[in-house]
Amino acid sequence: MKKTLLFLGLMAAVSVQAQQTFQPMQNSNSWKQEPTHHFKFDANKFKANKGGNAARSQTQFWLNYGTSIDSLNSTSSSVLHSNYLFPDSLCYGDFGGTNAGIWIHHVADVLDVKSTVFNIIDGVTWGVSDAYSVDSLSMIYAYTRNDIDPNVVDTLIVTMFTNTPTTNMGTYYFTGESANYGSDTVCFKALGYKQTTNTIGNTTLTSTGKRIIKIPLTIADTAGTFFSEKMMEIPGSYNVGAGKLLATDIQFKPGYSYALGDLIDSQHNAFYFTSYEELGAGTFPTYFGCNMGSAACDYNCSHILPQDVRYNTAGTWNGFYIPSYAYTAPFAYEHHLISYKVTNPPLAINEITNNNFALFQNQPNPFTNQTTIGYQLKKTASEVAVQIYDIRGVKMYEKTEKNVKPGNYSVNVNDVNFASGVYFCTLTVDGEKITNKMVKQ
């Protein structure tokens, strides 16, 4: 897999004075093509609501950033990719007709429920003041059983943790990318890797408070022709505090013995993860700007742990999972197809607050040179802002009012000179937000 890494700069949580520059990861021969085996995939089946988000009164949702982004960009569907997931590179896979060491050893994902994407596609109106719990996970996968012993039980090891303390997930950015990908320099939350124990977390990114869940894989989980969905219940659920993010790491642990040079497709059981490459091959993921770590940032991001990081040969990338934003095109594994069943606790702050205002769909929509945005307040607000963003997260319009009394209001946006495409209108009332999708013809 040919790749180019962006330069990485470290941003302190409260100050940019402690700044450090990371060099790109060096070229490595371990980067391979995708596996030869291709499984059939029914995208509509896995995009379906798992129980109906709208019917759950804004308290419970199934969230999958990859499928939500794909729905958002309805004019160009994402491309599905898959690859082996295996704990080391002793076993070989079939990469385009060539047997070579398997090079992806962990996949990881950061969930940020306050995302504009989740608001538009899934109806989630939670913000930075909301806590929630994760009751279940699911993963789109393929799994072939090739071991001669039918009683072998393999295992998925799922590790979950939040950014408490904040050092669990440092805020990082790529320098010099604002011109191409958004209104800042592409921020994300870094995940640390401890090479000596092959686990998530290290001395600076600790993964304190982590929960480890082991999910058995037996012959009943075989999915060797069609991709399937593995449902994983979280015993007792996992609670995520207000304003916090959730990180999830998934590993495959074989229940069989293997040796250097074994061909996994013919001799052993093989597990494949799946990811969406957004907007087709050779494109950069949609990025929503966060103005260098502000509360408005969308930190949803998928990560991999490749062979050179696993064996500590990745230079300055050693000790870190590699996020999808680290790669310029082409890169296939932008949004892992990992879903989360999340529940907002009763009487959560944001649920009450959002009952006090509403954002109406702009009229007309689609629009050409003029549109009107309506909203309603049920109590006095210290500050109300109406903002329009393009799909990259660049702010195109803003109107702010102070000390606004209860009532119905409208904002006329005239002489619109935006390019044709999808835009997002965000109503912010004293820090709480609602977002609608709008289309410029």
How many β-strands, per DSSP? 30
Determine the strand fraction and express it as a percent band.
35-45%
- Give the number of helices: 7
Helix content: under 10%
Largest sheet: 7 strands, antiparallel
Low-confidence blocks of residues: 6-31, 51-57, 346-354
* Whole-number count of domains: 2
How far apart the termini lie comes to: 38 Å
Cα-atom radius of gyration: 22 Å
Shape: elongated
Average of pLDDT = 80
- The chain-level structural class is mainly beta
Overview of the molecule:
With 441 residues, this protein is mainly beta. It has 2 domains: 333 residues, no CATH class; 92 residues, Immunoglobulin-like, CATH 2.60.40.3080. The strands form 8 sheets. Strands 4, 5, 9, 16, 18, 22 and 23 form a 7-stranded antiparallel beta sheet that branches. A 6-stranded antiparallel beta sheet has the order 15-10-17-8-19-20. A 4-stranded antiparallel beta sheet has the order 3-2-11-12, with no helix packed on it. About 10% of the residues have low confidence.
